[in-house]
Amino acid sequence: MPRPSVLISGASVTGTTLAHWLGRYGFATTVVERFDQLREEGHNVDVRGAGREVLRRMGLEDAALAENTGETGTVFVDDDGAPIASFAASTDDTTGATAELEILRGRLAGLIHDTTTADTEYLFGDRIADLQDTADGVEVTFASGATRRFDLVLVAEGVNSRTRRFVSGAPARRYLGMYCAYLTIPRTAEDDDTWRWYNALGGRSVNLRPDNVGTTRALLNFLSDTRGIDQLDRDGQVTILRRVFADAGWAAPRVLAALDDAPFYFEDLAQVHLDRWSRGRVALAGDAAHCASPVSGMGTTLGVTGAYVLATEIARATRGDTVDHRAAFDRYEEILRPYVAKAQKLPPGVPGVANPRTRRGRALFRTALRVAASAPARKIGSLGGRYFTPPADDFVLPDVVTGRLASAAG
Length: 410
Ligand SMILES: Cc1cc2nc3c(=O)[nH]c(=O)nc-3n(C[C@H](O)[C@H](O)[C@H](O)COP(=O)(O)OP(=O)(O)OC[C@H]3O[C@@H](n4cnc5c(N)ncnc54)[C@H](O)[C@@H]3O)c2cc1C
Prior knowledge:
By secondary structure, this protein is of the alpha/beta class. The protein has a domain of 228 residues: FAD/NAD(P)-binding domain (3-Layer(bba) Sandwich). The protein is 32% helix and 26% strand. The strands form five sheets. The chain has a seven-stranded mixed β-sheet, sandwiched between helices. The longest helix has 20 residues.
């Protein structure tokens, strides 16, 4: 019997998780990624709560923990790098600024990719140029000129997805007013295994984090009311970073000196809000559907959890070679939306409060951090808990589907 065919667009965490589960459930799965290979850029991402359970069900938890970046905690530092407040890494599924499971984004996507079934087809260096949703399926035209028909198309292209326009023409991105530059720089003898976070004035912060591949991950954040810097080419972005961080202090000169040669990813922080995550046979997943932003601490958890829910509801709504896509996509939204809504609700003042513009704002922030790091506050888990622990475990995963399709996958 022919198997229903699914095209997934985007081969990062969400796309590869969809491919894992759909492959396991017995679908004929194709993944298209606009880059020529799996992307390596990015820093630590954390997987918490329900996301950890999804990794467990994929048989990947131990492998992911073995790839931990080794970050032992989060330390806020002053102009000289001396600690102001320290928070140890978590030792459970869900809590902490440094979660128990911190893994490089590229490594996580690579691990999941390696678990997809051997008959999962990958098309690198291509993308969807056009699609027509017909009674018989979706006719897809790729940028390479190839045309193919699929029963379903799932879009996991991240926050700036272009294919999202086939589901909704409404503006989906809500900008949070902060740019982030993620760099990989040489590790030096003065680097330790903590996430060091320095607040410069003017809404800027400089962060250094360890990784498990012998380099250091640097993050430059700055608040700005001007949008569109992420649309500049790399040289334009680097010029702006040099200007903005010229007098930022602490490790800023070292990071700026490494800018020209460093692997680099730049983003204008945004959330994605949409009334509907599907239209006809096309559905959105991960950041393309509901980005909560890196400051939520939930992006990757939502990506793997949502991908599991979507693939599972598609399997549940499939009889033979026919998918009741409306039923599947409705259930997917019904199950996932409350979880997404909680994740997208950021603590008051985020991201501005953690990137103060004024001396007074910074002094208040540092006082709050000292209190949160103090023994009594740790005991009641108040401020630190609220700011650093997203609602990752507040979700009941639907059961894995077993049966004909699943057994067809072996
Ligand atoms: C390079 C990179 C680095 C990141 N670094 C961090 C980080 O350091 N910290 C953090 O918290 N989050 C980071 N993120 C975001 C994080 O991966 C997501 O928030 C979360 O894991 C959910 O991922 P996603 O798979 O839904 O989207 P993403 O991880 O954004 O992946 C989208 C994928 O789709 C591909 N794509 C985009 N458009 C098309 C198209 N038209 N056709 C085909 N493929 C397309 C992209 O190349 C990418 O591989 C990064 C994302 C990327 C792409």
